[in-house]
Write a structure and sequence with these properties.
Helix content: 55-70%
Order of helices and strands: HHHHHHHHHHHH
Largest sheet: none
Radius of gyration: 31 Å
Strand content: under 5%
Shape: extended
Distance between the termini: 103 Å
Number of domains: 2
Structural class: mainly alpha
């Protein structure tokens, strides 16, 4: 895990990517150097974010912690760019997701409501910041100017904030997003392995073939949970109270109460006027 998060993105840092100076490359020979050349950058980015998380846990609950980590993640990408090699793993976003899952963002309800209501304006904002003339993997090989990197990462940051605040959540009347979320996490963690082990497109087909299995597990778990709720003492008492005999008795009592109420309203007053 440590190798894939740290060492793997720096394996192909060579001179053929001339967008920006690669920190894991020898400036004299142009050949890839050892991972030790990138240790200061890795410590300053990953270690700094982990220090912020531990500091927040030590000081106590704060809904601002997620926004602080969010700002640190993207400010570092804009101000301190580096070549990410052939694939971006983004461990900082994993840490951000863990923090948000534990401590929701400040104002996430207002942000989710606003983004859901005015999503066309959000898309217009993203179109203004997009750069159609940019070519290549700008997330792996950042562009030269701070302004260009700001425009590129502003789009990504907006989309991440949209997911983190819950603006993308739907009503889910059919109950499919729960097990689809579990399958998507499985697919994210395994799809590259299947793609490397099997010829294309059989790796992708294998990943999609797990969909019925996740659906079956979800249905089986739902039925077991429903059965456990029905077998619970509280549920049995509730069902007994709603038995047909008791329901008929309750209906008779309600009818008699309504009848007595009507009779009381129609009965004349017993008090007669005195002469």
């Amino acid at each position: 895990m440590v190798f894939f998060i740290t060492a793997w993105p720096y394996r192909y840092c060579t001179d053929d990517q001339d967008d920006i100076e690669c920190p894991a490359r020898s400036q004299h020979s142009g050949q890839p150097t050892a991972l030790t050349s990138a240790i200061p950058l890795l410590i300053s980015q990953g270690g700094g974010i982990m220090f912020i998380c531990h500091l927040g846990c030590w000081m106590g609950f704060s809904s601002l912690l997620g926004w602080i980590i969010f700002a640190v993640c993207y400010i570092l990408r804009i101000v301190v760019p580096y070549n990410r090699g052939p694939h971006a793993f983004n461990p900082d976003l994993f840490v951000f997701g863990l923090v948000v899952n534990k401590w929701p963002l400040t104002g996430h309800e207002f942000a989710a409501k606003t983004l859901s209501e005015y999503w066309p304006l959000v898309f217009m904002f993203l179109l203004f910041f997009s750069m159609p003339e940019a070519k290549g993997r700008c997330d792996l090989h950042p562009m030269n100017m701070n302004g260009e990197r700001f425009r590129f990462y502003a789009v990504e940051a907006t989309i991440v904030a949209t997911f983190a605040t819950g603006a993308m959540n739907t009503s889910d009347s059919q109950g499919v997003t729960g097990w689809l979320g579990a399958w998507s996490l499985f697919a994210y963690c395994t799809h590259v392995a299947w793609d490397q082990l099997l010829p294309r497109p059989y790796g992708a087909l294998l990943t999609y073939s797990f969909l019925p299995g996740f659906r079956a597990v979800h249905l089986y778990g739902s039925r077991n949970n429903a059965g456990n709720r029905d077998r619970s003492p509280g549920r049995r008492i509730q069902l007994a109270r709603r038995s047909p005999i008791l329901e008929s008795q309750e209906e008779e009592e309600a009818d008699s109460a309504r009848t007595s109420g009507v009779l009381n309203e129609q009965r004349p007053s017993d008090a007669s006027p005195q002469a």
